[in-house]
Amino acid sequence: MSEIASKGQLRLSFLRWAMVAVPSVAFLGVLSGVLSGSGADNSWYAVLAKPSITPPGWLFGAVWPVLYLLIGFAFAVVLNARRAPGRGIAIVLFLVQLACNLVWSPLFFGAHEVTLAAYLAIVILVLAVLTSVYFARIRTIAGLLMVPYLAWLCFAAVLTYQVHDLNPDAESLVPPAAHTQI
User: If pLDDT is split at 50, 70 and 90, which confidence band does 41 have?
Assistant: First the structure.
């Protein structure tokens, strides 16, 4: 059975996917950061020695929402590519790398596990590269939308490792909220 859809129907299909995927990815990303207390206002993060490449705190708050919007659109493009070869694995890779991404802030800022966060940053980067390759095979634009995210993940991984190197005792600087005794 062959299906023929008009250009208008295809645009509406993409819009439906985008209306779900983009806000969902952006909301989850922002929620992860907010719930973990990420950012320059975090008292534990404030006392860490930071490498010279550390950008101002406001930049993180500006960059991450844009990146979440871009990868949300990339995801919507792939979701809309019905019957595309490799679509299923691309979707799974995206969801796994996104889940790992959402765990990073609570691990680093919430649990103060700098070493584990450094390793997780590498895992996220590898999964995001694989996701981008699969996305590009399905739709070139989806792969291209992932490029700024990949660039920022490279920077974030380097930054995390440098914070780890500069703060070998980071885990013990301030007790995590989960371990605070009253």
Answer: confident
Per-state percent for the chain, helix, strand, coil, to nearest 5: 75, 0, 25
Q: At which residue do the structure tokens 């008292």 appear?
A: 43
The closest of 181, 179, 172, 178 to 44, measured between CA atoms, is 172
Q: Would you mind telling me the total number of residues written for the chain in this entry?
A: 182
Taking the C-alpha atoms of residue 55 and residue 145, their distance in angstroms, rounded to an integer, is 23
- Tell whether the model's pLDDT for residue 180 goes beyond 60: no
Host domain of residue 134 = 7-169
- The number of folded domains in the chain is 1
What's the pLDDT tens digit per position in 118-154? 999 999 999 999 999 999 999 999 999 999 999 999 9
- CATH of residue 139's domain is 1.20.1260.100
DSSP 61-130: HHHHHHHHHHHHHHHHHHHH-TT-TTHHHHHHHHHHHHHHHHHHHIIIIIT--HHHHHHHHHHHHHHHHH
* Residue 148 in tokens: 């700024």
pLDDT(169) > 90: no
Residue 2 lies in a domain: no
**Is 99 a member of any domain?**
yes
Tokens for 140, please give them: 């070139």
